[in-house]
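[worker-b] picked up task from shared queue
[worker-b] task type: protein-ligand structure
[worker-b] ligand name resolved to manganese (II) ion; SMILES cross-checked against name lookup, match
[worker-b] sequence length check passed
[worker-b] input payload:
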Amino acid sequence: MIEFGVAKMNKPGFENSGDSYVLEQHSKGVLAAVIDGLGHGDKAFFAAQAAVEALKQSPQDAPLALMQRCHHALVGTRGAVISMGTLANDQLTWLGVGNVEGVLLRADKSIPRERLMVRSGVVGYRLPTLRAFTLLLHWGDTLIFATDGIRSAFAENLPRHDSPQRIADTILAEHNRKTDDALVLVIRYQS
Ligand SMILES: [Mn+2]
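[worker-b] inference finished, payload out:
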């Protein structure tokens, strides 16, 4: 089970956002993904939607397979950067192509936070060699994905025991660059 929150804001002056997310519960667990279509505006929006649809088709698949499926679905679009993770059986398996940041905050403060090692590339255009990483999850751990419209310092000094929605709102309020679309997805793993 999870609890989650999302906060987003379009690039000022634009009606459509190129930032999007997927959160799908399925028979094996939960798939979470954040997608940033290249650039902004309509073309970025269409690229991100192609990835959303590809992920929703079979969210129970492994992240490696899902990233490849997104790549095929995005050929001919602007392309996107994507980070995603599957939470299942007390494990997080995550991977990222491009600069959507991923952070795992531990419920236990004495355990350092984890940062997703993303590989550079563009889904739909140039896919790097993919590698997914698996971590053990504990109840109360908090997974955060944020697009590059959010400053990288977002994980510093977070009130980690706030609700996921409150954490998402705090990050957007304090770290939105306002020069791009911005989206943050926060997921708490719990019993
Ligand atoms: Mn962006």
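[worker-b] attaching auto-annotations
[worker-b] The pocket of manganese (II) ion is lined by residues 36, 147-149, 180-181 (CB under 6 Å).
[worker-b] releasing lock
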